[in-house]
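Here is an idea for our session: we take a single protein and study its fold together. Which protein we use is up to you, so please pick one and set it down. Once you have written the record down, we can walk along the chain together:
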Amino acid sequence: MYQRERSARAGKRCARRKSRLPLYAFVLAAAAFVMAFTFPEERPEEPGGRTSLVRTLSRTSGQLPAGQGTEPSIPDGTEDWMLLLVNPWNPLPEDFTCTRTQLANGQSVDERCYPDLQAMMDGCRAAGLSPTICSSYRTQEKQEQLYQNKVDRLAAQGWSLEEAKVEAAKSVAIPGTSEHQLGLAVDIVDKHSQVLDNSQADTPAQQWLMEHSWEYGFILRYPEGKSEITGIIYEPWHYRYVGKEAAAEIHELGLCLEEYLTQEA
């Protein structure tokens, strides 16, 4: 069919050349329009920058969690700041800032979650327990230091640099992708057992927090069995403020934050 049409057009090519010029222009313009949406231009970035590192580690890891690539949906009636998603595939906004409240031990958190955090700590202590906040808000510089230290330790154990970066990111977030930089995350341990491993889940203070944290607007951010979705290992000490309404729903449904934000997307 194509050959027949081509032969028919050949005899009329000269006569129709001028009349077809507008058609060519239209086709080219249409093609450019389609390509602009099919292949969007990526935002320029510095070589080796934060977004570049996230992409590199995602490619190197070979597998992304089930929720990656799904546009998060902020439920109606909630404030965006409480549910801002920061994980290995969603870096902190470049212009992000927050006003912080200083805690008694030198830590600090976003001032908007401080009253509920204080109430939760008071409630845990009122139950005769001894919770301690060992980490809270972190600067970009602090996160870079922690991440690089983890990479260096793994490299010293014989990991290649690329392998060390991927492995380190499972327990220490890539700088710019840590919830601690939001000011809404706190690492809480039992004063009598402050080792950050799975044994933390068996401490009295941690068991109380796992049962009651949602009542104060906090969730256990990296629960057991959700690592393929969150991109972070099970951390029975890392709590994230999401507000009381969202925390209650997440607790009731047994979801992680990624699942909660995409359930209605």
About this structure: Confidence is low (pLDDT under 50) at residues 1-73. The longest strand covers residues 185-190. The beta strands are 100-102, 108-110, 131-135, 185-190, 218-220, 238-241. The chain is about 45% helix and 10% strand.
